[in-house]
Amino acid sequence: MTTDFSPGDNIAMKIPAHEYEVTVAFYREILKLEELTPPGDRETPRFAFGDKVLWLDREPHLSQAEIWLQILASDIQAASSYLEQRGCQRCDEIEHLPEEFNSFWITSPCNIIHLVSPADDSPPDDVTKEN
């Protein structure tokens, strides 16, 4: 069984609480990126970032920002086996995913977190929110 990988539509920026408000203001007021967040929903602002969606998540336990990326796999089970055979570290404990969400977390060799998702699915609206 083989699988193909491709970039997903989502980029999550995990931002320390002490830098969160100024970072949101940077994307909203200085760069004036198109905001995709529904009116009144300010918990996790989302912005158009080219053909991607940039999620800005407040993370009180972090000391510096992190970028998390989404990778799509044509066959999620084959992807899991393939990555495991090549020594890629699963890190599903990094953030809870809903039970019905058939995806998993890995880390690259330089510790960038990746959400590996089925190519035919899209993540729930709250996948990057603190649970």
Automatic annotation (TrEMBL):
This is Glyoxalase/bleomycin resistance/dioxygenase family protein. SUPFAM superfamilies: Glyoxalase/Bleomycin resistance protein/Dihydroxybiphenyl dioxygenase.
